[in-house]
Design brief:
This protein has 495 residues and is an alpha/beta fold. The chain has helices at 7-10, 16-35, 66-77, 99-111, 122-138, 153-167, 173-176, 197-205, 226-238, 261-270, 315-318, 333-340, 371-405, 432-448, 476-493, and strands spanning 146-150, 187-192, 213-216, 242-249, 281-285, 310-313, 326-330, 409-411, 419-424, 455-459, 462-468. The strands form two sheets. It has a seven-stranded mixed sheet, sandwiched between helices. It binds pyridoxal-5'-phosphate.
Length: 495
């Protein structure tokens, strides 16, 4: 074989010629997959253990060819793939990749930099800062807020609540911890009954304990009732609790309801904390719906956002960004830094004044995630992204109109974005349990068909089906096909 000059040839890695050959082959594989994705059932039809049992128990002693590995992707991995990139995947909040996002992921692995500190890769740090500024402009966020990219909304919210705890600096939790102390009051974290369970997990992880959670009731549109929050804070304070953090959700997981950030922000800002810092920390979870703020007509969702201390938006939910990428914004980066920064001798002594993102979170090593928005935003342009988001909202409204005009279905929550909550409700059935059983069966039949994947939630003890239209590949035809399938499966239950 002709000797390559490439360093990866000499290092013992795969020869450059092979990387090139299989690289083309892999791109061919990915493009054919995406072109022909509709030939696959959206959900795999296998049982737990089927994939694992088809894999060798021991690692190979000797290296194998990439031909073998690629063949096994088709044989052993594809049968167990849930096709998140499928246009008929309309469950949960869909997360789809896009061409520029896929290429950015490839480049990320090719460069393989670790952006823990500025000097460990200046471009990773500075592109991240530049992308944060782009996103701030696209979402029309206050220009004085600071931002960082984490992996998921769960991680972003954990950092928000950790900063809220650190803001109570007089408690010295960073130094002394919380266990075994009788000199600190119990802390309270407030969020609505509809908030995502990642917030509960953050509370557990931070050692605050589930008992510190106070869930605030919601109104008939599933939005936190600000008045109830105010009452809860007052009552807690008189009973010796110390309010630490309020989490508002813009786009709740079940129904995409929007908490009133402005009203909630006023309540938080009015409080005076013993640490001398005004206000209870307000964290806003806009993991899915925040993306809609790139549309001028949707900017109402962030009314009052300047009153919030931190905010999370996940481009991997609705901005065609391969998982993962979560944006965390805060107007108090100093508090976040106080919660997390530690320096180690081996990382000291480089550029003064540059950002070291390792100081703002639990992880040290950091992927070069900002390449993804750099490719995606430049490729589609803000206008291109706006058109796609606007189209999803239009398709969801059309679907909701169809449900509302259908005699056998009913809408179960407002549709502010691209998710519709509905259930079958034939005229002759009115018993709650019977309706729940009917809808559960209907969802099962739909998902078993392999032609569509929907998910569900429970609202006021009622089983509710959700359709989420947020895949870059979902078009009007897919939504119309979904309507036909849903109708056909309901009719099938009565045959
Ligand atoms: N917040 C909301 C409102 C969500 O809907 C979800 C997940 O769907 C999350 C947080 C958690 O997101 P992640 O998977 O990025 O942690």
């Amino acid at each position: 074989m002709k000797k390559s000059k490439s360093s990866i040839y000499n290092s013992g890695d795969m020869p450059a010629s092979e990387l090139k050959k299989y690289g083309y082959q892999f791109i061919d594989w990915i493009t054919s997959y995406l072109d022909e994705i509709e030939k696959y059932p959206v959900l795999p039809t296998i049982k737990p253990g089927d994939v694992k049992n088809n894999l060798p128990e021991n690692p190979p002693e000797k290296g194998e060819t990439l031909d073998n590995i690629l063949a096994d992707i088709d044989k052993k991995i594809m049968p167990g793939i849930t096709h998140w990139n499928h246009p008929d995947f309309m469950a949960y909040f869909n997360s789809t990749s896009s061409g520029p996002g896929i290429l950015a992921e490839l480049l990320t692995a090719g460069l393989n930099v670790n952006g823990m500190a500025w000097h460990t890769c200046p471009s990773a740090t500075e592109l991240e800062e530049a992308m944060i500024n782009w996103y701030k402009k696209m979402f029309n966020l206050p220009q004085n807020c600071w931002g960082i990219i984490y992996d998921t909304a769960s991680t972003s919210s954990l950092h928000g609540i950790a900063a809220a705890r650190e803001q109570l600096s007089h408690l010295k939790i960073r130094e002394k911890g919380m266990a075994g102390r009788n000199d600190i009051p119990q802390l309270r974290i407030y969020f609505s009954e509809q908030a995502h369970f990642s917030i509960d997990k953050s509370v557990i992880t931070l050692g605050l304990g589930l008992e510190s959670i106070r869930k605030i009731p919601v109104d008939e549109k599933f939005r936190m009732i600000p008045e109830k929050l105010k009452e809860a804070i007052k009552e807690d304070k008189s009973n010796g609790w110390l309010p630490c953090c309020v989490v508002a959700t813009v786009g709740t997981t079940s129904t995409t309801s929007v908490d009133n950030v402005d009203e909630i922000g006023k309540i938080c800002n009015e409080e005076n904390l013993p640490s001398g810092q005004a206000g209870i920390w307000l964290h806003v979870d806009a993991a899915y719906a925040g993306t809609a703020a790139i549309l001028p007509e949707m900017q109402w969702i962030f009314k009052g956002i300047e009153k919030a201390d931190s905010l999370v938006i996940n481009p991997h939910k609705w901005m065609f960004t391969p998982i993962d990428l979560s944006l965390f914004f805060t107007k108090k980066p100093d508090v976040l830094k106080r919660a997390f920064s530690l320096s180690a001798e081996y990382l000291k002594g480089y550029e003064e004044g540059a950002t070291d993102f390792m100081d703002y979170g639990i992880q040290l090593g950091r992927r070069f995630r900002s390449l993804k928005p750099w490719f995606i935003i430049r490729y589609f342009g803000v206008e291109g992204l706006q058109n796609r988001i606007r189209e999803h909202i239009r398709l969801a409204k059309d679907f909701a109109d169809w449900i509302e005009s259908h005699p056998d279905f009913e809408i179960m929550a407002p549709t502010p974005f691209s998710v519709v909550c509905f259930r079958a409700h034939p005229k002759n059935i009115n018993d709650v349990d019977e309706l729940n059983a009917l809808n559960e069966k209907l969802l099962d039949e739909i998902n078993k068909s392999g032609k569509l994947f929907l998910s569900h939630t429970k609202l006021n003890s009622k089983f509710v089906i959700r359709i989420a239209i947020s895949s870059i590949r979902t078009m009007e035809k897919n939504v119309k096909d979904a309507q036909h399938l849903i109708e056909q499966k309901l009719n099938g239950l009565f045959e």
